[in-house]
C-alpha cells in the first residue's frame, strides 16, 4: 500500500510538472503572438495584411492551444499524450528543416522575372565584374563634360543606387544562387527569364556566363522554379546564328526538369525565348527564321518555340507581326519612357495582339534609377513611392488580362529595377537608397501579394 501511495504521488507530481511546463511554453508563444503586428508593416495604403508564413504560425499556435484545453480534463490517464505535446511544442519553436513546399508560396508560372547572372567578385571570379561598372558618358560631348567619368570601386562603391543585402556578390557563388531562388520562390514567381549570351560571348562589361546555366537550372529545380532564356543582342545576331543558338539551348538544356515549356492554346508544350532589342534586326531577317516559308525556318521542327519580341515604339507591333514572332513584351520599368512601357497603351497593344493571335506580356517594375552609371539620366528616374509605383504597374497589367506578366527585374541593380533584398548603406562618399520604412524583402512580399491577386482574377477571366 505504501509503495502504491508513493507511486500515485509520483505520477500526480509528474503530471502537474508536465502540465505546468506545457502552460509555460504556451504562455510564451501566446505572448510572442501578441507582439506580431496585424499588418505586415505596410499600413493601409498597401493593404498587404498578414504574410503567409505568419498566418501558418498563428494557425499552428491556435491548434496547440485547443489541444491543450481538451487535454486538461484528464491529466492522469493521458500522461503520455501530454509528454508528446510538450516535445512537439519544443520542436515547433525551432525552425523547420527542408520543408520548402510548406514554407514558401506556390510558384506562379504566369509570373516571369528577368534575372542577371553577370556579377562577379574577387573570391569567386578573381576580380569584380559589373559591380565596378563604368560611368557611361552622354552622347553629346557638351553634356558629357558636366558629369564625372571613371569606374566604380567595389565593395563600398558599386554601380548601383541601392545596395544588395548580399553585398557585392558573385553570381557563381552557390549560396547566392540558392538565396536568389528562395527569394524568387517566396515572391510566388514561377519562371526565371535568364539573361543569356552564346558560349564565349558576354556584354561589354561582363564575362561569359553560359557555363553557369546548369547550376542555375539545378537550384531552380530544387525550388520548383522554371528557367527560360532572355537572348541578348550578341554580335552578328541574325536568322542563321539564332537557329544555331536555339538548337544549342534546347539540345543542351531542354531535357532538364527546370527547363520551361509553355502550354499553348493547341495543347503543345513549347520552349519560350524572349529576344531583347529584337527591333534592331529587320523583319525580313526574322521572317527567314520564324515563318513557315522562311529559308531558315525553325517552325514545325524539333526546335520550334515561342519567340517574344521587345516592343518599344508603336510601329514595332506591325514589324513584330510581319517577322513571325509569337508575342511581344515591354521590358522597361519606366512608365512613360517608351510607347511600350507606358501603362495607358497596354489596352490597345493587348487588343492588337488578340486580333493577330499574338501574346501580349506587359512588364511591370518597382521603379527605375540608373544615375549611378548614367549620371545625366535623372529625367528617366521613377520613384518607388514606398511600393506604390509597383502596385500601380501591377494594377495596370491586370486590367488588360494578360496570359503572362513579366517583372523587371529580380536583380538589374544598375538600373534600380531590382526587387531583390536591399539594405541601407552609407559610405564616406555615397548614401545608397533603400526600402525604408519597410523591410529589405518588401518588394518580394508585394510580388507575392499580386501573384495571388492575379491567380484569383485569372480564375474569373476563364469562367
From TrEMBL:
Source taxon at top rank: Eukaryota
Enzyme kind, highest EC tier: hydrolase
Transmembrane region(s): none
Membrane topology: Single-pass type II membrane protein
Locations listed in the record: Golgi apparatus membrane
A single cellular component GO annotation: Golgi membrane
Catalytic activity annotation: N-{alpha-Glc-(1->3)-alpha-Man-(1->2)-alpha-Man-(1->2)-alpha-Man-(1->3)-[alpha-Man-(1->2)-alpha-Man-(1->3)-[alpha-Man-(1->2)-alpha-Man-(1->6)]-alpha-Man-(1->6)]-beta-Man-(1->4)-beta-GlcNAc-(1->4)-beta-GlcNAc}-L-asparaginyl-[protein] + H2O = alpha-D-glucosyl-(1->3)-D-mannopyranose + N(4)-{alpha-D-Man-(1->2)-alpha-D-Man-(1->3)-[alpha-D-Man-(1->2)-alpha-D-Man-(1->3)-[alpha-D-Man-(1->2)-alpha-D-Man-(1->6)]-alpha-D-Man-(1->6)]-beta-D-Man-(1->4)-beta-D-GlaNAc-(1->4)-beta-D-GlcNAc}-L-asparaginyl-[protein] (N-glucan mannose isomer 8A1,2,3B1,2)
Pfam families, sorted: Glyco_hydro_99
InterPro entries: Glyco_Hydrolase_99
GO function term, MF aspect, one: glycoprotein endo-alpha-1,2-mannosidase activity
Alphabetical list of Gene3D superfamilies matching this protein: Glycosidases
Entry EC no(s): 3.2.1.130
Keywords, ordered alphabetically: Golgi apparatus, Hydrolase, Membrane, Signal-anchor, Transmembrane, Transmembrane helix
Homology family: Belongs to the glycosyl hydrolase 99 family.
Protein known as: Glycoprotein endo-alpha-1,2-mannosidase
Organism (species): Ibidorhyncha struthersii
Source species taxonomy: Eukaryota, Metazoa, Chordata, Craniata, Vertebrata
Gene from which the chain derives: Manea
